């Protein structure tokens, strides 16, 4: 597995699993029915943001991440990042590899901290992964997410200094 | 004092204190040097967002607030709001009146919660005001704000159910 900057040519390989994950409505606050153009607009970043892909030896896209400033002005040293792994490539360490890469890049880009705004509390694998990468749950928005199966559940805000 | 929906005609009365507050760099994460068009774009909301003004008997604008969804999709029931009070009209209860009005409107618009993303911890009057209106500090982003006088200070995330 290799992680590199995404180009516009990668989007057609990202969109199928992006759409599947968003349509499930279990882990993202994106509109579940967003169309491809809206998805591209949310995911493919312009500088100073970055979009990355994890690819295997054949060049198949296994997952993707995006990162950029989470606040402006005097809070612009806080980065944000989001991650999508193709469900067909789950449990292979793709999310962890993307997370570690994004943390390195964020330090390199001069950020001092990273914040995740909305980690669904029932997404326990993601919560555990981010904790293992040094993030703390600094707060929870009670009833912040309407889960299609579990009803109103919390949204964790996760954070770490870099 | 009366609170009403802002129109485009109110912007010229908002911009002077908006600019002063943003340029001070003590309470907002907006770029300190933003120009009038960028300020208008950040402040004057399109539906489902709202922008409000507090005006006195003469129609003078004393302060303003904006509100709208803070998340999308299955988190879209969380509202966000921001407040600016003309420093020349401070300590007259304008912020509190705007806050109470925004909470009423948010309930009326069907939101279930309200979240403030970045309350600078040294802005103790704002923190006390929001606490008195039922908000809790659910988390703090340590060193999340580079204060021009105090250096890196925390950014509180404040939240309440409606």
Write the layout of secondary structure elements.
Two copies of one chain form a homodimer.
Chain A: E1 2-5, H1 11-24, H2 36-43, E2 50-55, E3 61-69, E4 78-85, H3 94-108, E5 113-120, H4 124-132, E6 136-147, E7 151-161
Parallel strand pairs in A: 4-5
Antiparallel strand pairs in A: 1-2, 2-3, 3-4, 5-7, 6-7
Quick tags:
homodimer, 162 residues, alpha+beta, Aminopeptidase, seven-stranded mixed beta sheet, 7 strands, 28% helix, 36% strand
Written overview of the protein:
Chain A is an alpha+beta fold. Chain A has one domain (2-161): Aminopeptidase (3-Layer(aba) Sandwich). The first copy, chain A, contains 4 helices and 7 strands. Chain A has helices at 11-24, 36-43, 94-108, 124-132; strands at residues 2-5, 50-55, 61-69, 78-85, 113-120, 136-147, 151-161. The first copy, chain A, has a 7-stranded mixed beta sheet with strand order 1-2-3-4-5-7-6. In chain A, a hairpin with a 3-residue loop joins strand 6 (136-147) and strand 7 (151-161). Chain A is globular. The interface between A and B is large, with 35 and 36 residues. Chains A, B: This is N-acetyltransferase. Chains A, B: InterPro entries: Acyl_CoA_acyltransferase, GNAT_dom, Mito_N-acetyltransferase.
């Amino acid at each position: 597995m290799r992680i590199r900057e995404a180009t516009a040519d990668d989007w057609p390989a990202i969109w199928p699993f992006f759409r599947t994950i968003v349509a499930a409505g279990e882990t993202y606050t994106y509109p579940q029915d967003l169309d491809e153009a809206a998805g591209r607009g949310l995911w493919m970043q312009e500088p100073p943001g970055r979009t990355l892909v994890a690819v295997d030896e054949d060049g198949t896209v296994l997952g993707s991440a995006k990162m950029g400033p989470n606040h402006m002005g005097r809070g612009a040293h806080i980065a944000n990042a989001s991650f999508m792994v193709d469900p067909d490539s789950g449990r292979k360490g793709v999310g962890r590899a993307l997370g570690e890469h994004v943390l390195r890049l964020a330090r390199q880009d001069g950020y001092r901290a990273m914040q995740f705004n909305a980690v669904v509390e029932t997404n326990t694998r993601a919560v555990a992964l981010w904790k293992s990468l040094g993030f703390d749950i600094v707060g929870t928005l009670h009833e912040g997410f309407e889960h299609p199966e579990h009803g109103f559940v919390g949204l964790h805000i996760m954070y770490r200094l870099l």
